Amino acid sequence: MTLALDALSRHKGGVHFILAADSLALAAELDIVRPRNLDEPAGPMIASMLPETADNSYRGYRLALWIFGLVVAMKTGIALNAIFNGHFVAISADGIPLDSFGPAGAQAVVALFGIWGLAQVFICVLCVVSLVRYRTLIPFMYVLLLLEHLGRRLFLTVMPIPRVGAPPGGFVNLLLLSLMVIGLVLSLRRRTSTTP
Predict the structure, then answer these.
(1) HSE-CB for 33 with a 13 A CA cutoff
(2) Cα–Cα dist 180/31, whole Å
(3) Which 8-state DSSP code applies to residue 38?
(4) ∠ CA 169-187-151 to the nearest 5 degrees?
(5) Does the CA dihedral 43-195-141-52 come out positive or negative?
(6) Residue 177, Cβ neighbours under 10 Å: how many?
(7) How far apart are CA 26 and CA 22, in angstroms?
(8) How far apart are the C-alpha atoms of 34 and 21, rounded to whole Å?
(9) Residue 90: enclosing H or E segment and its boundaries?
(10) Residue-wise pLDDT tens for the chain (196 aa)?
(11) Between vectors from CA 58 to CA 145 and to CA 142, what angle results, nearest 5°?
């Protein structure tokens, strides 16, 4: 504590850092705070999502890899369709009444579909690279896909788009969400070794 008080008298800008570091050292000495052990219950899950090294030593269930490949293929198809056939996708899959928007409004919606599709293609490229070369990142990629999907759903709940009818896009999104959750759980669970 004397180091922190000495720093307080000399350098007022860095005092908070020194006091915090001194407090952590004191807490460690008193065994109030200890470093997290990765063998504790929540440790392996976090270590699986954020591995120290990215390589091909995947430890989750193989079914999670197949589900991941299916999800990425579906999302790539949806993204390419949004880029190259945005007008049709907006009307048929998402039920957006483009004809009621006027030419400029319809063009803006189709352009936004294309931009969204392009962003999805880049995410899918990262997913394919992870699947082929860096399989330890598969749980992290599942989390990334889930956060993007849920963030988009939340945004559309706050700022809804007018729709007509019962477009099939909602069912496809529900299927994708279910597959991503199942795949994430399977990718985080460790396979039991059958070797003695």
Answers:
(1) 9
(2) 40
(3) T
(4) 40
(5) positive
(6) 16
(7) 6
(8) 14
(9) none
(10) 444 444 444 444 444 434 444 554 544 554 444 444 544 445 667 777 778 888 888 989 999 999 999 999 999 999 999 999 999 999 999 999 999 999 999 999 999 999 999 999 999 999 999 999 999 999 999 999 999 999 999 999 999 998 998 899 989 999 999 999 999 999 998 876 544 4
(11) 10
Total residues found in the chain within this entry:
196
Alpha carbon 126 to chain centroid, angstroms: 12
Nearest one of 117, 98, 85 to 164, comparing CA atoms: 98
Q: How far, CA to CA in Å, does 5 sit from each of 15, 17, 18, 24, 116?
A: 8, 12, 9, 15, 54
Domain parsing of the chain, residue ranges: 2-35, 46-188
The dihedrals phi and psi of 56, each to the nearest 5 degrees, come to -100, 15
Nearest to 140 by CA among 155, 123, 152: 123
Residue 89: DSSP 8-state = I
What tokens were used for 70?
């299916």
